[in-house]
Write a structure and sequence with these properties.
With about 375 residues, the chain is α/β, with parallel strands linked by helices. The strands form two sheets. It has a seven-stranded parallel beta sheet, sandwiched between helices. A six-stranded parallel beta sheet has the order 10-9-8-11-12-13, sandwiched between helices. The longest helix is centred in the N-terminal third of the chain and has 18 residues.
């Protein structure tokens, strides 16, 4: 059986979905991967996956480019003749799904959050129409939280019987075991991810400045990830003041998690935040937005604190509350967070559900 996997980012697929690919290979499937070559193609090749480079403008809204992508996917499907296609992320879901529908090939899609397209009313209406057309004959759609699945039912995009709601990608508890709580001289908050507006970094930077004004060198915000150009100066300014330290992109973020007292993610929207799952698995309390994709992984007041999105004052108060708590109580929150991951987010369970569904869906 040949399975064609279409994604817009091989790095993210390898980090969070490689166990699914491994299970498909172990089941005797031939796996072909269509992706922009941005990392881990060699790792996939060593696993036995054949990789085909396919350029995808992830954020662009050029109709001509999107039409070209649809034609590329359709040509690829005709050439490979897979028994099943699996798509990840919005453009592969839509244009790969439309290509599969026209070629009569079974396909399964993964909705990993709604993204910025659903934050703008007019664009959301257009994307909903595209999704509705792409998912007309879909075999199964995997969602990372129930709110996204409910929206797709409400908009008549995908009926309940074709939906499979997962706890995100789950967390690999072998790679992220509980780690002892740190004994730091100063309190380390950690933000890990893209430094961009939708992640709530404007509110985070405001709260960090207030924390630094109140607590001086007893507080620091560790920043790790890529930043967009508009945030270069704010990042550099925070670092000059001593309120933050910028660590850049980290291939292995575990040392930063382990040295953190608390992980903070004030995002506006998520599918299911892998940062929160990783932090919790390692035994760190978190502060995050009370939104779908974040709230599911946090027991408010027990494993961390939830606060309203886009509210710098509420975020500051939550950070102040965490800062003022005893080390023992924060460590206890971390222990409860790890236990929650074991109960609800073990990736082994997620992988089994996904692979069972995919194998049933193939023609």
């Amino acid at each position: 059986m040949k399975i064609l996997v279409i994604t817009n980012h091989s790095y993210m697929l390898y980090r969070f979905r490689r166990e699914v690919i491994r299970q498909l290979l172990d089941a005797g499937c031939e796996v072909v991967l269509s992706t922009p070559f941005v990392g881990h193609e060699d790792d996939f090749s060593r696993m036995g996956v054949r990789c085909i480079e396919t350029e995808v403008d992830r954020r662009g809204l050029n109709p001509a480019e999107d039409l070209r992508l649809f034609r590329t996917y359709r040509k690829l499907i005709r050439a490979e003749r897979p028994e099943l296609v699996v798509t990840y992320s919005i453009k592969p879901n839509i244009y790969g799904g439309l290509a599969c529908r026209m070629e009569g090939v079974p396909y399964c899609a993964n909705v990993q959050g709604l993204g910025t397209a659903f934050q703008k009313k007019t664009l959301a209406a257009f994307v909903t129409l595209l999704y509705r057309a792409a998912f007309r004959r879909v075999s199964a759609v995997f969602f990372e939280n129930e709110s996204n699945a409910a929206l797709f039912r409400e908009k008549a995009v995908c009926p309940r019987e074709k939906q499979c709601v997962l706890p995100g990608a789950g967390i690999n508890l072998d790679e992220y075991p509980a780690a002892p709580y740190p004994d730091n001289e100063k309190f380390h908050f950690l933000y890990l991810g893209r430094i961009m507006r939708e992640k709530g970094v404007g509110e985070l930077f405001s709260a960090a400045e207030r924390m630094h004004e109140r607590h001086g060198n007893a507080f620091v915000l560790d920043l790790a990830g890529f930043f967009e150009d508009e945030y270069r100066e704010p990042v550099e300014s925070l670092c000059r003041s001593g309120a933050a330290v910028f660590h850049g992109f980290q291939e292995d973020p575990r040392p930063l998690y382990i040295s953190a007292d608390c992980v903070v993610l004030p995002s506006y929207h998520e599918g299911m935040s892998n940062v929160l799952l990783e932090a919790a698995a390692l035994g760190r309390p978190v502060i995050t937005s009370d939104i779908p994709g974040c709230r599911e992984s946090v027991s408010d007041g027990e494993t961390g604190f939830l606060c309203p999105p886009k509210d710098a004052d509420a975020l500051f108060e939550a950070m102040e509350r965490m800062f003022s708590a005893s080390s023992a109580s924060r460590a206890e929150m971390g222990r409860a967070a790890h236990e929650k991951m074991v109960r609800e987010f073990d990736r082994k369970n997620v992988v089994k559900r996904v692979t069972d569904t995919l194998l049933r869906s193939a023609k």
